[in-house]
Write a structure and sequence with these properties.
single chain, Ferritin, 2 domains, two-stranded parallel ribbon, 2 strands, 76% helix
Length: 326
Amino acid sequence: MKLTFPFSRKRFSELSEQEILALAISSEEDDARIYRNWAEYLRADYAATAAVFDGMAAEEDGHRRRLLDGYRARFGETVPVVRREHVAGYYTRRPAWMMQNLSLDTIRDEARVMERDAAEFYARAAQASSDASTRKLLGDLAAAERGHEERATELADAHLTAEAREDEEAVAHREFVLTWVQPGLAGLMDGSVSTLAPIFATAFATQDTGTTFLVGLAASLGAGISMGFTEAASDDGVVSGRGSPIKRGIASGVMTAIGGLGHALPYLIPHFWTATIIACIVVFVELWVIAWIQNRWMQTPFWRAALQVVVGGGLVFATGVLIGSG
């Protein structure tokens, strides 16, 4: 029976010193490429942070050269192909295509995790080495990786001036608003307002809380699914800069469903007028929360946001009550 690839991986404890050095060389090369990819990805909007990652990539290149020199001194010019995926339990890195789903802060956190993983690897490798010069090299690299957080801070101080940080924070804020707040707000408005008429029309027409809840549940979840798919499919974010369509779809769909469920859930209460009064209070709170979000995140004057949302929502609410009562 032919073994499949996962079962052919070695444990770290089974690697020879030659293989450990080869693994370290390939890992440093991969990490340098990751930092350069991040720098290229961030350069247009976050030039200062990109310069920090350029500097960290150069540091990894220096580590790779030191490892190659140490390898040549012991084993010659031919370096065996040993990579992370060849070693069971070895730390992994995210693939390049996942980068667009990471925020700036997440990328910075990922870099810190990378340095910590590398430091732990070199510490283990140094303990496994019987050659004094190799042990010293690996120990020095472990210390260097642990010190990379300080190096990153030095690079950040050199490149991330107060003005650069301010510019990057503005860009990050804009991305957050376009990716999460704007579609989420649109969903919350749609879910809160569009479900008012069917829910309250059903409530006043039947005065049956169970039926009203089922109508509200169906309307809320249906609207959430529809809004989520519409938002995700309407714009891939490449040209508009609005970010990941998946994130926007999730924000829009979830908030649409929440907006509708807010005034549907009170109808789980069996007493009609108690449920209706609570649902009306929930509607009032929802509409003012929407107005506050518009003012806080979209810079819409509060009086204008309140007029648009509260008056519009009130008209839809009244429509549902009138139709249901008729």
